[in-house]
Amino acid sequence: MMNTNKVYNNILSNFNTDTLYRPQKDAAIVEGDSLELMKKIPSHSISLILTDPPYHSTNKKNITGDTKFKKDEDFLDWMEQFAKEWKRILKFNGSIYCFCSSQMEYQLINRFSKDFNILSTITWTKPNKPGFDGWRKKMKKENLRQWYPASERIVFMAPKYGENLFNSYFGAKLRSWRNLVKISGHDLTEITGAYGKVNHGGAVSNWEAGRNIPSREQYTKIINALKIRDTNGLISFPDYEDIIRPFNVDGTMQYTDIWDFETVRQYRGKHPAEKPIDLLENAIKASSYVNDIVLDTFSGSGSTAEAALSLGRKSISMEIEDKWVQASVDRLKSTQIELKV
Questions:
Q1: Per-residue model confidence as pLDDT tens digits over 31-81
Q2: What is the 3-state composition of the chain as percent helix, strand, coil, each rounded to the nearest 5?
Q3: Which three-class secondary structure state does DSSP give residue 103?
Q4: What is the pTM of this model?
Q5: 217: domain range?
Q6: Counted domains in the chain
Q7: For position 188, which CATH number holds?
Q8: How far apart are CA 204 and CA 193, in angstroms?
Q9: Which one, 7, 209, 281, 323, has least CB within 10 Å?
């Protein structure tokens, strides 16, 4: 398995010490333009990207970058540059959660789908208790000329490796391994007992198409079956954590594509786009392994870093505004992180 501590420290060594802060051993904050900062990250070294870029459509002056682009196309071109870098730095089995507005969702997905498999589009409903509903309760309904945008979107995606929907790195590797040792998909299905009845598994054809991912037990059976045929030792098989995209949910989590997490209530010093810790934890727990590296390229006040630390992950936060860099440093230094793993 990849030595995550070594990878993490290697990544951080590439940044200027004047703009790098380490409020916790496993939490780093880098000040600057994340599009440029990402170029210093080695390829295929980040496990999960969880990030909240400017929405553009909301046009809020108190969010850096939200009013930067006059045309939608300029904003989309800018975001496409991020997508290219995200794919380069993500591990082959990495994932991305990218927040966006409902208005820009489809245009962004169109750009992202050039480099990523769009696995889900999550609707965050933002429910709140009476008295904390903001403009939803106060605004005059008769003035509406379209449905009130009470939700936000989160695009969940993984790097695409092929020309068809869902083509994945593992799927391509499995097919090449099978061809190398001359074992049919049907025979491998028989050996592993994966007939598609288990949602986490699916038949070999589904794994190769990228529609499903094998469980740890199924992957072990795959490797053992292939090793018997690989008499010349031609194949080096990665550990499960280095090739299978993590996706681990249970009944205690929000596991559908509708997420109901209350918004962060107003407090002195609150970031205008701050996301709730429990929502971020839901994504991190599902789509990363313990000790993985989580990157937020628009980190704001450091919520993603706090959520990552609480689940035993390492974090790298990139933020362009010095005000929020300092707020993040203070937050992570003073917050008592409760480990939830």
A1: 999 999 999 999 999 999 999 999 986 666 666 665 778 899 999 999 999
A2: 35, 15, 45
A3: coil
A4: 0.91
A5: 169-242
A6: 2
A7: 1.10.260
A8: 10
A9: 323
